[in-house]
Design brief:
Length: 149
């Protein structure tokens, strides 16, 4: 079981999704995923049903990788982001706060510097919305079985 210590209002979730879509479109990214530290999908862009299973996997695996690397980094140094390079696509994962992460999946033609630059503006916008959700302090329990893979 896991505890969720935030609750997003419908209008906040719509605003988050809108901003993720704008970020995705501004850089021609393939996928943008906002997740929490428990691997739960908060929102994603493009917001199309066919992308939801992929976004859920990115959220779950992304949070696990960030958690594992975080434990290793206590030995070396502290970082707030990770970059993964594949044959055709790259992924940049950035910690927005101690609770939320943003993953950007993009083609090699998109410069990493542009992703980082545009991510800074998005991070500031999202952090305000997410801090409001955390401030409400509503906790609920989620069973692992409830997470759809």
């Amino acid at each position: 079981m896991d505890m969720i210590s935030y609750r997003l209002k419908e209008q906040e979730l719509e605003e988050i999704t809108k901003r993720l879509q704008e970020y995705k479109n501004s850089l021609l990214l393939d996928l943008v995923v906002l997740m929490d530290d428990g691997g739960r999908l908060v929102s994603f862009a493009p917001y199309v049903d066919s992308y939801k299973p992929i976004a859920q996997r990115v959220a779950l695996v992304g949070a696990a990788v960030v958690g594992a690397v975080d434990q290793l980094e206590h030995v070396i140094s502290s970082k707030k982001s990770m970059f993964f390079s594949g044959q055709e696509k790259n992924m940049y994962v950035h910690m927005l706060s101690h609770k939320f992460m943003l993953a950007s999946v993009f083609n090699h033609k998109v410069p990493l510097g542009s992703v980082k630059l545009f991510k800074e503006k998005l991070s500031r916008e999202l952090t305000t919305l997410l801090e409001n959700a955390l401030a409400r302090g509503e906790s609920r329990v989620v069973r692992f079985e409830d997470l759809a893979l």
